[in-house]
Amino acid sequence: MKAVLDIMVDFFTGNGFIASFIVVGLLCLVSDFISKKITKGRIHASAIAIVLGLVLAYIGGVVMNSGVDPATGVQYKKGLADIAMFTGVGFLGSSMLRDFTIVSTAFGAKISEIKKCGLVAIIALFLGIVSSFVFGGVVAYAFGYKDAVSVATIGAGAVTFVVGPVTGDALGATAEVITLSIAAGVIKSIAVMLVTPVVAKKVGLTTPRAAMIFGGLMGTTSGTTAGLAATDPALVPYGAMTSTFYTGLGCLLCPSVLYALTELIL
């Protein structure tokens, strides 16, 4: 048994990048199982995976940030990535691959399709981003964050949990603020997943056009698609289409125009 463990440790430490894919794959597998078997599909696997990832990050931070590298005498600063078996996670979670996922998602949408919904879908996109940003910024300010960078980053997190870290990275926000922005986006995503099936018929969310407007207002692709899937699977592609544009547009507006306005106001 000890020999097997030694082989596994050697493999993970010697092939950090490959090992990181295995770790993330197992995390996604567990998340998918929880989503399907425990929540019956009401909470999307991606949201569960993000929550589990944040838990691992917290554990890694608590365990490693109090330790010192015996070889160099320098205090650990990378959290989970400081553990030899998980060094590849630091690269896999870098801004490069994060931005790659944004671009790859956006490639699945076509501007010609969104035009079929008309001007109202475009208005919904801008209205959804601005309203979420303002709400997140007001909450951040109420909890004591007075500088424009922190307020804008947390406000962007309320847009989606992808836009938050992109904005924070661009503006030079602290790790604490970026983490809060992700948490805000995750909470929003889960809320949209749970509430959508309950209120869908009451608000008229029964047609493709309504689904596109809903996706533009809510954004958070994982929350929108999961909520629409629980409502009517036929509506998912339409909601996903505008929510995909929502993420991309949010990554453009939040670190630029909306941040400039925030700085002007504060």
Description:
This protein is mainly alpha-helical. It has 2 domains: 2-93, no CATH class; 112-265, no CATH class. Helices cover 75% and strands 0% of the residues. The protein is built from 13 helices and no strands. It has helices spanning 2-14, 16-38, 45-64, 87-92, 95-106, 111-114, 119-142, 148-159, 163-171, 175-199, 208-218, 221-231, 236-265. It is globular. The mean pLDDT is 81.
N/C terminus separation: 61 Å
Count of individual helical segments: 13
Give the biggest beta sheet: none
> How many domain regions?
2
Question: Would you identify the regions where 5 or more consecutive residues have pLDDT less than 50?
Answer: none
- Rg is 20 Å
Report mean pLDDT, rounded to a whole number: 81
| General form | globular
**Structural class by sheet pairing and helices:** mainly alpha
Could you give the count of β-strands?
A: 0
**Fraction in helix:** over 70%
Strand share of the residues? Answer: under 5%
Order of helices and strands: HHHHHHHHHHHHH
Could you write a compact summary of the structure shown?
The chain is mainly alpha-helical and about 270 residues long. Helices cover about 75% and strands about 0% of the residues.
